[in-house]
Amino acid sequence: MDSPDGQRSMTHSEVAALQQELKVPDLEAGLTSQEAAKRLAENGPNALESHTTPKWVIFIRQFNSLIIYILIGAAVLTTVMGHMTDTIIIGLVIIINAIIGYSQENNASNALEKIKQMLSHEATVYRDGDRVDVDAADLVVGDVVFLEAGDNVPADLRLFDIDNLSMQEAALTGESNSVEKTVDALPANTPLAEQSNMAFASTAVATGSGMGLVVATGKHTELGKISQAVADVRKGKTPMMTELDNLGKGISYAILAAAVILFGLGMWSGHYTVGTLALAVVTMIVGSMPEGLPATTSVVLAMGMQQLVRKENTIVKTLPAVETLGSVDVIATDKTGTLTKNEMTITNVITPHHDYAVSGTGYRPTGEFSLRGKPVSAKDRADLRDLLIAGYEANDTTLAEIDGKYEINGEPTDGAFLTAYHKGFAEEPDYEELDMLPFDSDYRYMAKLMRLPDGQHRLFVKGSPDKVLPMAESADPAFDTQHYLELTRSYSRQGMRVIAVAAEDLPDSVDEITEGLCEHGVTFLGLAVIIDPPREEVIASIKQMRMAGVKVRMITGDHPDTALAIAKKLGLADSPTVVTGTELAEMDDAARTQAMISTDVFARTTPADKLAIVTALQEAGNVTAMVGDGVNDAPALKKADIGVAMGESGTDVAKDAADMILTDDKFTTMEKAIAQGRRIYDNIKKSILFLLPTSFAEGLIIAITILTQDNMPLNASQMLWINMVSAITIQFAFIWEPAEPGIMARPPRSNTASMMNWHDVFQMAYVSLMISGVGLYAHDWLLDGGYVSATVASTMMVNIIILGKIFYLFNIRTHALALSRQFFSNPMAFTVIAAMVVLQLAFTYVPFMQDVFRTAGMSWLEWGVAIGAGVITLVVTEADKLIRLAYRKWAHRTHSAEVTEGKLN
Predict the structure, then answer these.
(1) Which of 86, 143, 163, 334 is labelled catalytic?
(2) Tens digits of residue pLDDT in 675-729
(3) Structure confidence by residue, pLDDT tens digits, 780-810
(4) In what helix (H) or strand (E) does residue 890 lie, and over which residues does it extend?
(5) Is 561 a catalytic residue?
(6) Hey, which residues does 375 pair with through a beta bridge?
(7) Phi/psi of residue 384, nearest 5 degrees
């Protein structure tokens, strides 16, 4: 096929081979309607299908959980016992948990729907010798598709004829710049981002036009493969949710086993009737079962979610993701727009006379020029002024401030020149455009002919140094082309892009740019060094996260030199290492897995590579977060323990596949979110350490009573009151507990580590025994001494347990001593304590409550005993804490001394 100037097409032999392979007799005529219909019937429509699970099935399976079984069992027990208030509360918890789980699962199918929507709705094809528009779903392999600027590509195409064609593929490959297309044959293992002879479904035509043969449709396209990967990914439970499930299972089995044993012992003793014993055992089960645990966990997570939205510009879509943040130890992140601004910036201007540094990043025109460290004015430097004007004029991009943010319409590289110009000049040059030669991938430069205010005609040229420098040599044989080519190579190795700028005064008779005009010779003005700059705040954030034991891995579609240079600037590692997707594919399984775990920078990656890297990190025991914004990130976002998408620049597909969205697009928000996640995990653990021993104390009171064959000090309604009043008041004090000092100075917890260590178990055991033991002793002492009636004694027992909870709360709230600066750090703790005290006074003195729960008013003696029991709980647990703090200080001093001695020796 012959092509006019500016166009390229494949050789006749390549075209013939492609036609034969796809069975297309005539490229100009395209397929016949009959043949297209036949292929459509055989292979199906060019569409993506997502086989979603029915909504009602998703909702029903939310009840398939051990913790829900425990709650249902507790609800049945309270219903049988006639305590409908508690039944209603537990039922609400069950329904809320189901709704939350349903909404989490439903998000995954939404991501698939968004991918389906990315396919173009119409396509321009050649059918029966005519160029017609057809429904994109009717495209088949072998169709000849015509593309022009502004089109979305409807299927994967092998290009065979192009005219200055470039594509915007950032969403698919992560490449920020438009990709210049070719028709040349490429090796079979060419990475996705370098397949310049292909146009992929869902990408957009930036400039030019072209024709291509459909080689893949629907699920077989690169977009379809991503869609299938998203559908196939199954995210497991978070470590904490798994541990809570196991904890609930262990507790329930232990309580049921204890209940059976106690029932057997009670029957064997013959002291109780079957009815009395059964009621006592049911009371013990209800009292011991921590039915408030799921509610407390859910509320702590939900409040943490709200705080992330309100304070940290972070939307968390799933409750478990809030907690997972705290255990993240690896962040795999896209580069463009995440670690960098995705705003090309000129950092240096190198003229034949000087090397100017340029400050400021992004498209906002704030910054200055400096020479050898001293600020200079562009207006006073002729060489700098001429280059900036030439770069500004040889340009067809616009820069504008929209809602306080500077945005470009056109090529990022051109935008960098506009910004640099406005850093030196407020007004635009008063030049008149006569003609323009747009950039073309054949000659890789652009030129514009202008009339200056004095009538002089001047040609401005901007483009690739290997094209512009020979033009300068044509005008001046003494021009040192090799020097500037070596400079270009040096900056390129640092991941920077170098653009050459030139100009030439022409006679007034020249008013158009003709073929070969530039090649006749131009005056070299200099080089502009351009980079997509790292976000300044990211550098500090990565440093802080490394101190917190969180490693950051960069995964990008960019060139390895560019990626490595950015990684060094960011301080990603002391000596960052890089590997490409192609290199990974050539490794054996063991070497590939090791590289995925240990490498800092992954370049030229495909969506499949990103998914494999995240999977390898997880299988190595890392809790992995994936940060991305493109369609190509979606499978990895869904697979990661927590997927994080960008709110402003992120695609809808990425947002739907992610668990969390950074609404401000700032990677630094990850640092704050991780700190918030660690705080939330700490508070969940504190609430569990608080809830379990106080619940066990209730069960122990009944168990000890049965073993000692004594009269029951508490009835079922009183047990339920203790659980209910705690669940709606004091347990929620942990929602507002602030972060412990130094929370980001410690390493992330291991996902294999147990939530509770040996001391936690020991403390739960002795606190349970202490509260129940002191309560029983006080109850029996007052009752046996004839000081109070049985009703008053049982009322006092309830208040002993409640006050024990209140005093124990001050111990559990902080790792520091209770009576320290941390005492008033959570004002809401005092609010919920006040609410609990009011409820207890109503429980003790309100006649209606006395009738329902069989209670009676207490004298100062009984209140003194109850308060004294609570003080004992606080004193003992604080003594325990004091011993542990002293031991840690001693161990730290000993370790420091050993290190110092080792260095001296």
Answers:
(1) 334
(2) 888 888 888 888 888 888 877 888 888 888 888 877 778 876 777 678 767 656 7
(3) 888 887 778 889 999 999 999 999 989 998 9
(4) helix 860-904
(5) no
(6) 370
(7) -70, -40
